[in-house]
Amino acid sequence: MYELAAFPTCPYVHRVQILCHEKGIPLNVRHVNLKEKPDWLLEISPRGKVPVLITKEGPLFESQAICEFIEESHVASPMLPTDVFLKAQCRAWMSFVSDELYPKAYQIQHAQDREAAESALSVFREKLDILGDRLANNCFLTGEHFGLVDIVAAPIFMRAEIFKAKGWLDILGMNEHVQEWSNRVLSRPSMKAVLPDDFADRICQQMVESWILSNPQ
Ligand SMILES: N[C@@H](CCC(=O)N[C@@H](CS)C(=O)NCC(=O)O)C(=O)O
Question: What does each of the 217 residues of the chain score in pLDDT, given as a tens digit?
């Protein structure tokens, strides 16, 4: 069985857990204290980050590389198209989500003043509109079927749901394609299965100094 060096609220860890849940692959999840990293993590994680997947071939870092390794090693329940062009397109969208959306989502969550929050939010919403254009003609970011691009993106939207439920901010409200896609994806059992019961509380604790939490819209 694979072992996964993890942290309970890490969105990159959640990507790997969601994929394994969807494919029915058991995982032995080993949570680490990121404030006091154990030596064994530092030995296998070149950047000192989680997730790291411990396989029989050796440790693997970076969530997207881990997900692609799992996808290619377990062909049942495919999460990427077999067509090489469509697969390359999916990789392009995964880069877009990781490089453009994740950093802005992080900035929104941790902004300490109105200016920083509003500027990150405005860029984030522009990027969402780009996702919305893809979703206007596709049920999922992966294409016709749910798959890896949706899994890579989903953790951002798990947080967006908390922001909305707490009445802090409706990040997605303006883009109906993205909102509908988010509802479709987040209702899957795999999404709920990977979250700790106290996920919303933990996110609140991480945001004690954030502007959004003290200035709900
Ligand atoms: N690009 C990495 C990002 C992983 C990452 O940033 N993990 C965070 C937790 S969510 C971490 O381990 N942080 C500890 C640190 O940076 O020292 C991936 O996709 O795996």
Answer: 999 999 999 999 999 999 999 999 999 999 999 999 999 999 999 999 999 999 999 999 999 999 999 999 999 999 999 999 999 999 999 999 999 999 999 999 889 888 998 899 999 999 999 999 999 999 999 999 999 999 999 999 999 999 888 888 888 777 899 999 999 999 999 999 999 999 999 998 888 888 887 777 6
Going by the DSSP 8-state scheme, the letter that residue 5 receives in this structure is: E
Residue 51 alpha carbon, nearest atom of ligand 1: 20
Q: Which one-letter DSSP state was computed for residue 50? A: S
- The CATH code that applies to domain 2-73 is 3.40.30.10
Q: Is the CB of 45 under 6 A from ligand 1?
A: no
**Residue 147 in tokens:** 């798959």
Taking CA atoms only, the protein residue closest to ligand 1 atom 15 is 49
pTM (predicted TM-score): 0.96
Show me where the domains of the chain are located: 2-73, 84-214
Pairing of strands 27-31, 2-6: parallel
17 CA to centre of ligand 1 in angstroms: 15
